[in-house]
Amino acid sequence: MGKKVKKEAEPPPKDVFDPLTIESKKAATVVLMLNSPEEEILAKACEAIYRFALKGEENKATLLELGAVEPLTKLLTHEDKIVRRNATMIFGILASNNDVKKLLRELDVMNSVIAQLAPEEEVVIHEFASLCLANMSAEYTSKVQILEHGGLEPLVRLLASPDPDVKKNSVECIYNLTQDFQCRAALQELNAIPPILDLLKSEYPVIQLLALKTLGIITNDKEARATLRDNQGVDHLIKILETKELNDLHIEALAVIANCLEDMDTLVLIQQTGGLKKLLSFAENSTIPDIQKNAAKAITKAAYDPENRKLFHEQEVEKCLVALLGSENDETKIAASQAISAMCENTGSKEFFNNQGIPQLILLLKSDSEEVREAASLALANLTTCHPANAKAVAEADGVDPLVNILSSRRDGAVANAATVLANVAMQEPLRAGLQSHGVSSALLGPLRSANTVVQSKAALTVAATACDVEARTELRNSGGLEPLVELLRSKHDEVRRHASWAVMVCANDELTAVELCKLGKGRGKKEEEKVKEEEEVSTLPKLMGEGSPEKEWYPPFDPDFRVYVYEVTKSIFPITDIKEQIEVLARYVAEKMGGKMSKEKLHNFSWELHVSELKFQLKSNVVPIGQIKKGIFYHRALLFKALADKIGIGCSLVRGEYGRAWNEVQLMNESRKGLIGALPPPEVYIVDLMFHPGGLMKLRSREADLYRYL
Questions:
Q1: Residue 165 and residue 132 in contact, taking contact as beta carbons nearer than 8 Å
Q2: Of 174-188, 217-231, 238-252, 405-419, which has the strongest mean pLDDT?
Q3: Virtual CA dihedral for 486, 492, 496, 500, nearest 10 degrees?
Q4: Euclidean distance between CA atoms 97 and 224, whole angstroms
Q5: What is the 8-class DSSP label of residue 451?
Q6: C-alpha distances in Å from residue 183, one per residue of 140, 152, 180, 447
Q7: pLDDT digits (tens, 9 = 90+) for 629-652
Q8: What does residue 120 show for φ and ψ, rounded to 5 degrees?
Q9: Do 88 and 76 touch, CB atoms closer than 8 A?
Q10: Domains of the chain, residue spans
Q11: What is the residue-wise DSSP string for 102-123?
């Protein structure tokens, strides 16, 4: 081989400048450079702007004023990788400024930013693109744009990035997006829970915290809770609580556990692995108020399920709640009182609190905080309802005075609760006699004049329970309580009128009080007298016209079977304390007596017509005693249910539809609102299924209820 000869460099073209080193201390000059067609100038300009933006909010505002944002958005899709990277870095920093965010939404750059999350892009681009999205996602319109442009899938993928900054930005953006229910559904489809759970193992607390906050939102959905359980997520959460070094994460971990405890399967799993005892011990012994408060809230949410309540009772959750009542923190006291209210649905829990909860709750009735007094009064209302021993315990623990004081509270919920407790106490003759010395009758004057129908109803009920002797009625009369009581008879609210009527009936046992009631109702009484007079005049017309005497009075046939039904339900169903359970059991009883559970497909084969016709023939009458009907359909069953419900005090209505349909409507308190502070929510109306799924309750106007009511 010959000797290599060094090749001389070719001279540059005559029409091109030699490379220039461009420096500028003027931001405006650098912004102008963003319009250059040369990659090197663009890259250096972006690098300078990035350093400038890092210095603070004032510089970000300056760049916005100089018009830097719009040309920078075009560089996000530039062919040169360095230019594209530098532009992305700038937007990661700039997007924390609200005015910049607003302009970016108007320029619709979301698609360009999301494109930077592609797997082939380098980590630094992932970091600043995800930072830009995290900053943007704090605002609703941007959330929508991120979802619409498919940003969720690459963000979930980047949760597994080796770079902690990318993980942090991605999970922060996902956390912001989860405020929208559509995002939560999409996360479930993307199987996002396992990678989010993996973040709990991170060495960076901020990443762990964001992961827990995200789980706290998405586990409000049942499917997400099941996924978390299946991926051993509960174990991770319990371990966090057991690790003292992670005490900064305990509050958020408890929030996730609170959601998970709503599912019976999860609660059983925690109990079987010993996690429930650890949780209760952790809550009871913690010195951090927020942790105790969240633990009590977790118990409250879970305790709305009957099976959960039973399991909690077996684990002696009541001891933990009583301990939390003694907290110095008001929010913890409120949460513990609400949890006790929820647990009261369990009979065993009610009995436990007789000695170890009622005295502490009465102390809370004297708290300086109105919210604490309201929560404590709600717990006492639930504890004493259908439980004479607890009502007696309230009286013996000197609870009447603070309850009477609460009747003048500004919070309607507290007043209604206190009135309920006093009514429950007054149900017992020995206790009722002692109430008058506390001025109950005069204290009810304000609640009777309340604008809140729940307060009106409870106040009238308390009058009916307390005004059973001359002294009580005299005090009520002298304090001016009869006038607002009579006024409640004109209420448009059914329960208010019902309780007011009962109270008026009780008060009318006293002659002086009866006279006063008549005076107060004189205006309306005149109309009633005129109506009666008209009826009397009409009834005398036949006699004036010379018609014959009326026929012998008719009596309905004797119904021994119905009397047996009344005896049986009074003995077995009336003692049930839970109204919902009473309704369900009575519905099954009625269905059993009328031919049992029916199938919609086989309804046409149910020969009830022949059975009823035979009864009419036997009785020589079209009037058939309800107890003799052993094959009944909708209206037979609804009629029997109504008749028996009235006998044992279950409030329900009988509604007649078309084509032989009839049904019963009952009112029940919404389970999700029980225990909430504030005015008590109105009850919801349900249709009772007596045919296809006896005992089932269908919310009025739901699809299943409409199918039951109409052909």
A1: no
A2: 405-419
A3: 20
A4: 34
A5: S
A6: 12, 8, 5, 46
A7: 999 999 999 999 999 998 888 889
A8: -75, -15
A9: yes
A10: 389-528, 560-709
A11: HHHHHHT-HHHHHHTTSTTS-H
CB 321 within 8 A of CB 299: yes
* Contact predicate 676/695, CB 8 Å: no
The DSSP secondary-structure symbol of 666 reads E
Q: Which amino acid is at 532?
A: V
* pTM metric for this prediction: 0.58
Residue percentage of the chain with pLDDT more than 70 = 90
Residue 90 near residue 50, CB atoms below 8 Å: yes
Which tokens belong to 545? 């016209």
Supply 253's token pair.
Answer: 């971990």
What pLDDT does 711 receive?
66
- Other residues' Cβ atoms within 10 Å of the Cβ of residue 150: 14
Instruction: Please compute the mean of the pLDDT values over residues 111-134 and round it to a whole number.
Output: 92
Cβ atoms of residues 484 and 449 within 8 Å: yes
Distance set, CA 686 to CA 348, 454, 641, 682, 696 (Å): 28, 20, 14, 13, 9
Distance CA 549, CA 133 (A): 93
Residue 629 identity (one-letter amino acid): I
Distance CA 600, CA 239 (A): 51
Mean pLDDT value across residues 536-563: 57
- φ and ψ at residue 167, rounded to 5 degrees: -60, -45
Q: 389-528 falls under which CATH superfamily?
A: Leucine-rich Repeat Variant (1.25.10.10)
Q: Which two tokens stand for residue 559?
A: 């119904």
Residues 357 and 322: their CA atoms lie apart, in Å, by 6
In the three-class reduction of DSSP (H, G, I as helix; E, B as strand; rest coil), residue 680 is classed as coil
Q: Is the dihedral of CA 469, 471, 472, 475 positive or negative?
A: positive
CB burial class (10 A; 0-12, 13-18, 19+) of residue 103? middle
Q: Which residue has the tokens 């009610």?
A: 350
E strands, 454-522, where? none
For 625, phi then psi, to 5°, come to -60, 130
How many residues make up the chain in this entry? 711
**Token pair 């059991």: residue:** 585
pLDDT digits (tens, 9 = 90+) for 396-427: 999 999 999 999 999 999 999 999 999 989 88
> Which helix (H) or strand (E) is 664 found in, with range?
strand 662-668
What does the angle CA 559 – CA 560 – CA 561 come to, to the nearest 5 degrees?
A: 95
pLDDT bucket at 358, cuts 50 / 70 / 90: very high
Q: How distant, in Å, are the alpha carbons of 5, 203, 519, 533, 676 from that of 527? A: 128, 81, 14, 10, 44
Residues 261 and 222 sit within 8 Å (Cβ to Cβ)? no
Residues 6+ apart with CB under 8 A from 563: 627
CB atoms under 10 Å from CB of 18, counted, come to: 5
AA letter at 522: K
> What is the SS3 assignment for 663?
strand
634-647 and 579-593 helices, crossing angle to 10°: 130
